[in-house]
Write a structure and sequence with these properties.
The complex is a heterodimer of chains A (423) and B (310). Chain A is mainly α and 423 residues long. Helices cover 73% and strands 2% of the residues of chain A. Classes of the chains: A mainly alpha (423), B mainly alpha (310).
Chain lengths: 423, 310
C-alpha cells in the first residue's frame, strides 16, 4: 500500500502501476471487443450476455463480502429492485429514435433503484457486521420477496412483468453515417452488455482505490481501530452498502434489457445464494476473482445443465471443496500457481502439485461415475450412463468397481501426498 | 373460543416442533459460533430416513433409528468437514454449512426423487384423539406433543443433572476455560453437533409426515429456525423455547385471523378494494417471523434471553 508520508520510492513505480492497474483493463476491453469478431453463435452470445450481467452482480457482491466483510444473503434484492425499476421505465420510454438511447441508459436507472433500496434497507442493517448483518439480510430478503408476490401491480405476481427493449426499427442516420443499432438483435445487446460490464468494472475498481473503499477494508479487519482513527465503522459500512446496492442495480438494469422480463423470483433467496457462490468460488480477496467466478459459474450453469441433471450437486461439491481447501477461490489458485512457477525451487513444488492434481482427478472420476449412475437410476427412464461407449448399469459390479477404486485410490494418494509434505 | 383453543393447540404443537429443531441449533451456535445453515437439511434427512427405514421395520423402530443415523452423519460432518474449516473463521464455517445444505438437497433429490414422497402417519395414530365442540383433534398431533415434551424433559435433565451436561453448559459460555481444565473440547463439539443434528432428525421423523416430505422442506423450514434462534438469543435454550412457542402461536393465529388490511386500517381511509386494503392477515403469516427477526435485531440484538450479543 502506498503511504505518501514515507519516501515515494516505497510506492509502486509508474510502470508497475501501469502493469497492475491499467493493463488488465485494456486486456479486458480487448477481449470484450474481440469476441464479436469471432462470429459467435446465438447460444454463445446469450451466454456472454448472461456472463456480463453476472460479472457486474458478483463484483458488486464482493464490495460487501470481500472488501467490507459483510456476508449478505439478500443481495438479489438490490439487483431485483433496480431491475424492476428499469423494467417499468423501459415500458414508459416512447417508441422513437431517442428511445434507443433511453434503453441503452437503463442501467443508470438500475443504479439509482439499487442505491435507494440500499439506502433505505442499509440503515438498520449496517449497525453490526458479522452474523447479525447476515441474519438481517436474510430476513429482509424473505420479506421483500414475499412482499413482491403480494403487490401484483408493481411486481406482476407469479409471472412477473415483461417489456420490449426495441424502440426503433430502422438504421439511425447521424451526419450521413448510418448506424444499424436498434438494441433489438442479440448482437446489439452484446455491445450494450459489454459497454456496461466494462464501465461498471472500471468504476468498481476505482471505488476500491478511493478513501472510502480503503476504509471499508480497514473496518472489515478491525472496526475498533478504524473508529479510533476517526472513521465511524457504521457509516463506512452504510456507504459501501449503498454503493454495492447501486452496482447490483446496474446488473439488474442490464438484465432487464437483456431478458425483457423480471419476476419476484429474481429477488428471492435463490439468486442471492447464487451470487454468493459466484463471488466466493471466484475468490473474494482478488478483484478479478468474482469476474472469474461469474464466468465459470455462468458457463457451468448453461453447459453442465445440458449434460447432466446433477449440475447443482457438482456446484455444491465445488463450493465445499473451495471453502475447505482453497478459501481464496479460483483466483487464489491461479495466483498461487503463477507464484509457484516463478519462485525458486519450482520444479519439485510443481511436481508435488501435479501429483496431487492427478490424485484429486482420480478421486473425481469415481465421484462423477457415482453421481451420473445415481442420477440415471433415480430418473427412472431406464437410461444407462455410457462414458466412451462403455455402458455402466447400476446393478453391474463393474460400475461399483469404477466408483470405489478411483475414490479409494485418489483419497489414499492425497493422504500420502499430505503426509509427505514438509510443514 | 373454539378457534382459539384449536389455534393454541396447533400453535403449541408447531412451536414445540420448532423448538426441537432450534434447541440443537442454539446449542451448536452458542458453543461453536457456527450458525449451521444445513440444520434444516438434517431435519429433512430425518424425515427421509424414517420413510425408508419405516418401510422395512415400521414407524416405531424408525422413530429411534433415523435420528441416531442423522446424529452420526452430523458428527461425521463435524469431524471431517467443519473442524477443518474452523481455522478459517466463522464466515468460512457458515459458508461450509451453506454449501452442505445445497449438497444434501441435491443428494436427496437423486436418492428419493424430486417430488414429495408418501411418508404417512402410522395407522395406529391415524385417527382422532378427542372431540371438542364437534371437531376431532388428530391423535398424531397429541403424539407429536408427547414426543416433544419427552424430548424437552430429557434435554433438560441431560443438561442440568448430568456431569456431561455440566461440561456442555460450561463450554457454551467459556469454551477456552473448559479446554484448560483438561476436557477434550473438539470431542464435546462433535458430540453436541451430533446431538443437535439428531434432534433435528427427530423433528424430521415426527414433522415430515405431519407437514410434507419433499426436497424443498429444508428450504422452507431453515430460515424460520434461524429466526427462532436469533429471537431467543445466543446461548439461551430457554430463549429458544419461548421464541419457538411465540413463532408457532403467532403463525397459527395469523392464519386463523379472518381480516384484511381494510378491516384494520379502513378508518384511516384505506379502500376495501385497493391493493393494500385487500391484503389479508393470513397471507402475511409466513412473513411475520422475518419481520420479527429484523425488528429484534434492530431493537434488541441479543435476543429475548440471550446473555451476550453475537
Amino acid at each position: 500500500m502506498t503511504d505518501t508520508a514515507l519516501s515515494p520510492a516505497l510506492g509502486p513505480t509508474r510502470s508497475a502501476q501501469f502493469r497492475d492497474r491499467v493493463l488488465p483493463f485494456l486486456a479486458f476491453a480487448a477481449v470484450l471487443v474481440a469476441i464479436p469478431a469471432f462470429g459467435p453463435s446465438r447460444t454463445w452470445l446469450t451466454l456472454f450476455n448472461s456472463m456480463g450481467i453476472n460479472i457486474v452482480f458478483a463484483l458488486s457482491y464482493t464490495m460487501l463480502l470481500g472488501r467490507a466483510g459483510l456476508l449478505s444473503f439478500g443481495h438479489a434484492v438490490y439487483f431485483g429492485l433496480g431491475g424492476y425499476l428499469a423494467m417499468h421505465l423501459m415500458a414508459a420510454i416512447p417508441e422513437g429514435v431517442w428511445g434507443v438511447a433511453g434503453v441503452f441508459a437503463l442501467p443508470v436507472v438500475g443504479f439509482a433503484g439499487g442505491a435507494v433500496a440500499g439506502a433505505v434497507i442499509g440503515w438498520p442493517s449496517c449497525r453490526r457486521a458479522g452474523i447479525p448483518f447476515a441474519m438481517i439480510s436474510l430476513g429482509i430478503a424473505e420479506l421483500v420477496a414475499s412482499a413482491a408476490f403480494i403487490f401484483v401491480s408493481v411486481f406482476g405476481g407469479e409471472e412477473g412483468i415483461s417489456g420490449d427493449r426495441m424502440k426503433w426499427f430502422d438504421p439511425i442516420a447521424i451526419g450521413g453515417l448510418e448506424i444499424d443499432f436498434t438494441m433489438g438483435p442479440l448482437g446489439d445487446v452484446y455491445w450494450f452488455i459489454a459497454f456496461w460490464t466494462f464501465l461498471a468494472t472500471v468504476l468498481m475498481y476505482a471505488f476500491t482505490r478511493t478513501p472510502l473503499g480503503r476504509m471499508s477494508e480497514a473496518v472489515r479487519d478491525n472496526p475498533e481501530r478504524a473508529a479510533f482513527v476517526g472513521y465511524n465503522p457504521q457509516q463506512v459500512r452504510y456507504l459501501v452498502f449503498i454503493a454495492a446496492g447501486g452496482f447490483a442495480g446496474v446488473g439488474g438494469g442490464m438484465a432487464a434489457v437483456n431478458f425483457e422480463i423480471f419476476t419476484p423470483e429474481n429477488l428471492s433467496l435463490a439468486p442471492s445464494g447464487f451470487v454468493l457462490l459466484m463471488a466466493y468460488i471466484g475468490g473474494i480477496r482478488y478483484f478479478a476473482g468474482p469476474i472469474l467466478g461469474a464466468v465459470v459459474l455462468t458457463w457451468m450453469q448453461s453447459s453442465f445443465s445440458a449434460y447432466t441433471e446433477a449440475w447443482l450437486l457438482y456446484l455444491g461439491l465445488l463450493f465445499i471443496v473451495i471453502v475447505m481447501f482453497a478459501p481464496d477461490g479460483l483466483a487464489g489458485v491461479v495466483a498461487r500457481l503463477a507464484k509457484g512457477v516463478t519462485a525458486p525451487g519450482a520444479a519439485p513444488r510443481l511436481g508435488r502439485w501435479a501429483g496431487r492434481t492427478v490424485a484429486a482427478l482420480v478421486a473425481l472420476t469415481g465421484v462423477v461415475v457415482l453421481v451420473e449412475v445415481a442420477v440415471r437410476w433415480s430418473g427412472g427412464y431406464g437410461e444407462t450412463f455410457e462414458p466412451f461407449g462403455l455402458p455402466l448399469p447400476a446393478d453391474e459390479p463393474i460400475t461399483w468397481v469404477l466408483v470405489g477404486v478411483p475414490i479409494a485410490l485418489g483419497l489414499t494418494l492425497l493422504r500420502l501426498a499430505a503426509t509427505g509434505d514438509e510443514p | 373460543m373454539e378457534t382459539f383453543v384449536f389455534s393454541v393447540l396447533n400453535g403449541v404443537t408447531y412451536g414445540l416442533l420448532l423448538f426441537m429443531l432450534s434447541s440443537g441449533l442454539t446449542l451448536i451456535f452458542s458453543m461453536m459460533g457456527v450458525l449451521n445453515f444445513a440444520h434444516a437439511s438434517f431435519y429433512m434427512l430425518g424425515a427421509y430416513f424414517a420413510f425408508t427405514i419405516g418401510a422395512a421395520t415400521g414407524f416405531w423402530v424408525a422413530l429411534f433409528l433415523a435420528p441416531v443415523l442423522v446424529g452420526l452423519i452430523g458428527a461425521a460432518v463435524e469431524r471431517w468437514g467443519l473442524r477443518k474449516v474452523h481455522t478459517n473463521g466463522h464466515v468460512a464455517e457458515l459458508l461450509f454449512t451453506f454449501g452442505l445444505a445445497y449438497l444434501i438437497e441435491e443428494i436427496v433429490k437423486i436418492v428419493w426423487g424430486k417430488l414429495s414422497i408418501p411418508y404417512k402417519i402410522p395407522p395406529l395414530l391415524d385417527g382422532p384423539a378427542f372431540t371438542l365442540w364437534g371437531t376431532d383433534y388428530p391423535a398424531y398431533r397429541v403424539f407429536m406433543l408427547a414426543v416433544s415434551i419427552t424430548m424437552l424433559v430429557a434435554l433438560f435433565l441431560l443438561l442440568k443433572k448430568t456431569r456431561a451436561g455440566l461440561i456442555i453448559q460450561a463450554a457454551l459460555t467459556h469454551p477456552a476455560m473448559v479446554g484448560h481444565l483438561g476436557h477434550n473440547v473438539p470431542k464435546i463439539f462433535m458430540t453436541v453437533f451430533g446431538i443437535g443434528c439428531g434432534l433435528a432428525g427427530l423433528a424430521g421423523v415426527i414433522g415430515g409426515n405431519y407437514l410434507v416430505t419433499d426436497p424443498s422442506m429444508a428450504y422452507a423450514m431453515g430460515p424460520i429456525v434461524f429466526v427462532v434462534v436469533v429471537i431467543g438469543g445466543m446461548g439461551s435454550l430457554a430463549g429458544a423455547f419461548v421464541a419457538s412457542l411465540l413463532i408457532g402461536l403467532l403463525q397459527t393465529f395469523a392464519v386463523a385471523v379472518d381480516a384484511t388490511f381494510f378491516d384494520l386500517f379502513g378508518w384511516a381511509g384505506l379502500g376495501a378494494m385497493t391493493e393494500v386494503g385487500r391484503i389479508s392477515i393470513s397471507s402475511l403469516a409466513p412473513m411475520l417471523p422475518f419481520l420479527l427477526l429484523v425488528l429484534i435485531l434492530m431493537i434488541r440484538p441479543r435476543g429475548l434471553m440471550g446473555d451476550r450479543e453475537f
